[in-house]
From TrEMBL:
Its EC number is 2.6.1.11. GO terms for biological process: L-arginine biosynthetic process. It comes from the Bacteria. PROSITE patterns: AA_TRANSFER_CLASS_3. Binds 1 pyridoxal phosphate per subunit. It catalyses: N(2)-acetyl-L-ornithine + 2-oxoglutarate = N-acetyl-L-glutamate 5-semialdehyde + L-glutamate. Its main location: cytoplasm. May also have succinyldiaminopimelate aminotransferase activity, thus carrying out the corresponding step in lysine biosynthesis. HAMAP family: ArgD_aminotrans_3. Pathway: Amino-acid biosynthesis; L-arginine biosynthesis; N(2)-acetyl-L-ornithine from L-glutamate: step 4/4. The modification N6-(pyridoxal phosphate)lysine is found at residue 236. GO terms for molecular function: identical protein binding; N2-acetyl-L-ornithine:2-oxoglutarate 5-aminotransferase activity; pyridoxal phosphate binding. This is Acetylornithine aminotransferase. It comes from Bacillus thermotolerans.
Length: 389
């Protein structure tokens, strides 16, 4: 009997402790965690420098409210603006809340209401961000959505031209669609789409909730593809597992977010911010990010060597340490087999095994993960092939 609404299809794993890339369950079984709380614990579980910073903040004060001058908010906002090239920050508590803020800001700043997003996108589970999401399964049963969201197929410029117009407040997208299947936006498409949006006077809003904070080997994924957004949203990895979200935007938008226009009781909580400050100090360092790229390349190379010959393995996707293995069939049974053998991985869309290891994962942990995954995939693929005969 559970006292919880059954909103999640939970695994049969009950964590008792977690450190670095490892999670131990209540039976003492150890798992190599390549889910990192769905791209959240970018420095692994309980990183020492973050733990120290949070403990120091807990000694000072936990919560006041946004009626006060919170120095840590200024400090973390400075880190985020310097890393992104944007100017001003609003703090929220989650990815969906950050996207809500982005949507409200884009509408108020432009005086328009229409927002164009892409099919297979994912922007969150609040009402507006659910409506923004380009996946029917997320919306089923909730009745009419907000009419002002319009969807275009990803990577299709002529289709986008059909829907962008002078009524459009914003074009909103992920550079790599995370939940939708690790679908990468083509550089040319994203640049032309953004330029077109601007021609109509619409803002370019990039959802960096999953791709940001070093996950793809740059502070933010838009920096791989030469984009120049007006607003980006961030959450997940920003505070190593304490709840925090943020939007970072251009200073020209400041008037639309004047006092009283938007807010959050918990947004920019000092404890979460102490965690964010210590996390970003490490993650936004150039040499740290160079290692994320090296490790990502190593992981993909090892995966290709080990898995390419398996007929059910269709290909490899992603950037930095946001990696997908695309299968010819549903990924769920394969990640269940890997979990059984001690590796935690995720799905993305129906057919992709998604790996989001800690950004400071060790070489030997990468090798171990590839070895477990190879055993699991080979075993499942063999079972499926023989079952079909
Ligand atoms: C791209 C993207 N945007 C928004 C969200 C929603 O974030 P949260 O679950 O923190 O509300 C997610 C979560 O997976 C995401 O991947």
């Amino acid at each position: 009997m559970s006292y919880l609404f059954p909103t999640y299809a939970r695994w049969d794993v009950t964590p008792s402790s977690a450190k670095g890339a490892w999670l131990t369950d209540k039976n003492g079984k150890k798992y190599l965690d390549f889910t990192t709380g769905i791209g959240v614990c970018n420095l692994g579980h309980a990183p020492e420098q973050v733990k120290d910073a949070v403990e120091q903040q807990l000694e000072k004060f936990w919560h006041t409210s946004n009626l006060f001058q919170i120095e840590l908010q200024e400090e973390v906002a400075k880190q985020l603006t310097e890393a992104s090239g944007l100017d001003l920050v609003f703090f929220a508590n989650s990815g969906a809340e950050a996207n809500e803020a982005a949507i409200k800001l884009a509408r108020k700043a432009t005086g328009r209401t229409k927002i164009v997003t892409f099919t297979n996108s994912f922007h969150g589970r609040t009402f507006a961000t659910m409506a923004a999401t380009g996946q029917e399964k997320i919306k089923t049963g909730f009745g009419p959505m907000l009419e002002t969201f319009v969807y275009a197929p990803f990577n299709d410029l002529s289709a986008l031209k059909e829907v962008l117009d002078k009524e459009t407040a914003a074009l909103m997208f992920e550079v790599i669609q995370g939940e939708g299947g690790l679908n990468e936006g083509d550089q040319d498409f994203l640049q032309e789409a953004s330029a077109l949006a601007r021609e109509y006077g619409a803002l370019v809003v990039i959802d960096e909730v999953q791709t940001g904070i070093g996950r793809t080997g740059k502070p933010f994924a838009f920096q791989h593809v030469g984009l120049d957004p007006d607003i980006i949203s961030s959450a997940k990895g920003i505070a190593s597992g304490l709840p925090l979200g943020a939007i970072i935007g251009r200073k020209e938008l400041a008037d639309a977010f004047s006092p009283g226009s938007h807010g959050s009781t918990f947004g920019g909580n000092p404890v979460s911010l102490s965690s964010a400050k210590a996390t970003l100090d490490t993650v936004f360092d150039d040499s740290f990010l160079a290692q994320v790229n090296e490790k990502g390349e190593k992981l993909v190379k090892s995966l290709k060597e080990a898995l390419s010959s398996i007929p059910q393995v269709k290909g490899f996707k992603g950037k930095g340490l946001m990696i997908g293995i695309e299968l010819t069939e549903e990924a769920g049974p394969y990640i269940a087999a890997a979990r059984e053998k001690g590796l935690l991985a995720l799905t993305a869309g129906a057919n992709v095994i998604r790996l989001l290891p800690p950004l400071n994962v060790k070489e030997e942990e990468i090798e171990q993960a590839v070895s477990i995954l190879t055993d699991a995939i080979k075993e499942k693929a063999y079972e499926k092939t023989t079952a079909g005969n």
